[in-house]
Amino acid sequence: MALEPGTDLAEQVRLLRRAHETFTEAGTVQRPVRPVVADSWRRSARAGVGPDGTADVELSDGDLGAYRAEHPLARVMPLFRELMGTFASDGEHLLAVCDEHGRLLWVEGHARTRQQAEWMNFVPGARWAENAVGTNAPGTAVAVDRPVQVFAAEHFIRRVQPWTCAAAPVHDPRTGRVLGAVDITGGDGLAHPHSLGFVQAVARAAESQLALLLPHHRATDTPELSALGRDEALVVAGGRRVRLSRRHSEILVLLSRHPEGLTGDELSCALYEDESVTPVTLRAELARLRRVLGPELLASRPYRLTVPVESDVAVVERRLESGAVAAAAAGYAGPVLPASQAPAVARLRRRVADGLRTALIAGRDPDLLADWAHAPWGEDDVEVWRALAAVRPTATVLARLAALESELAAPTATWLQRPRS
């Protein structure tokens, strides 16, 4: 929550503005800034967001309409309108829905409030990702995957500070992936705790409806493995959704790519940098994984999966191989098991990321390049920013590129031109 009950709003705004000025001038965070906001300010600054910036409109007219029509959250827009539309109109607020990249898809509500919001480009098609416009409820909710309330001068960009907003992420009920966020934006009255609980409840209702609208899979269907952008992979099999430990995630990712199986020695070399790890350690991990998945899915001698497993990694690779770059980018939710240090996983992570970014640079599609550049794994990727600047030379893009090239040219620079993966 942004405010404790009984807080003096005017005094809180004054203190937050002073803290914001201190941070933008000296880089230090003072009270009463909440930890969630302080962390967001730091991420915003690292992404090169300036306090006097504004959002870029990246989709408009037909492009926006086509993108919205295909987005999964289009299925629950009638629900959002039913639950939040009257509240937004009567309270002079805005109902907003963004995608997983922080791009606003719908902004509806009170007519005069919509007009006022246009001044800061809080409009459909504008990118409100945290790493594009700094701390804001929809962008930060997507970034941290949790409900967020942002009050007044907690916003990173000054022109947004007259506003207050609350947002909650909406997940795919089958895979757990963030599809976007639902947001309520308006005046200081939204700093009330009820607004945060309200958007949380709406997000949960949307996920429940999506569970009914998405096609059901029979227990005999191919198991699905989600490992992109996750430190802990998710398996959907036999009607169950199972979140794996990090080590089990690595094992299943590797076995899914080797249907012929791997010997104990092969799997050990793929998993462990330390050659002193004993075979007993690996066998114990596999025994635990078998108990998690069930004995019918994991066999031994060699270690292998008894049925094909469809992974999101393989889907992206197939789309790239067929030349469907936009579809590959849409399916790329982040690096393969980002925190994994297993040698074979690290090689796979680099190969998938490099293949996709190379295709994006060659394709020169501004929207796809912007999606990559504004994602956490692409925010320091100078090659992609250069490609984006060539096809979309907005002030924000050029400023970010200049900052990256300045860091790169500095004698003590340790920045890499490759994306973090």
UniProtKB/TrEMBL annotation:
A Pfam family recorded for this sequence: GAF
One record GO biological process: regulation of DNA-templated transcription
Entry annotated with the keyword Transcription: yes
Molecular functions (GO terms): DNA binding
Ranges for domain OmpR/PhoB-type: 239-305
Keywords from the named record: DNA-binding, Transcription, Transcription regulation
InterPro entries recorded: GAF, GAF-like_dom_sf, OmpR/PhoB-type_DNA-bd, WH-like_DNA-bd_sf
UniProt-recorded name of the protein: Transcriptional regulator
The organism of origin for this protein: Streptomyces sviceus (strain ATCC 29083 / DSM 924 / JCM 4929 / NBRC 13980 / NCIMB 11184 / NRRL 5439 / UC 5370)
